[in-house]
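Title: Prediction job returns without error message
Component: structure pipeline
Severity: low
Priority: P3
Assignee: unassigned

Description:
Job completed but the reporter wants confirmation the result is attached to the right record. Sequence as submitted:
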Amino acid sequence: QVQLVESGGGLVQAGGSLRLSCVAAGLSFSNYVMGWFRQAPGKEREFVAAISRGRLNTDYADSVEGRFTISRNNAKNTVYLQMNSLKPEDTAVYYCAADRSVVVYFATQSYDYWGQGTQVTVSS
């Protein structure tokens, strides 16, 4: 019944921007920690960003810090990932994830629920 649906991916040129959205259903959204992960072909799924409940603390992977911004709108049950200054190495499938209590925010196993992913391709 829990559904996380990502959107906003696409093909962009290096230096461009994209805004990903993830709409959640079937859960009490404001009570969940939300995260973004990405996976390139042949690579392990890696942490991108996370945002907490309450005070909305954020954390970012070193590779995206300063370029990406995670945010959430609890009234819309939506978490966003604003991606600026995109690089070809950002090319991956981006996944939205949710969990009520995240201990290790950057670990995939910390999250119980996942979306289907949205493709982001950055050309040079």
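Comment from assignee: result matches the submitted record. The chain has a mean pLDDT of 96.
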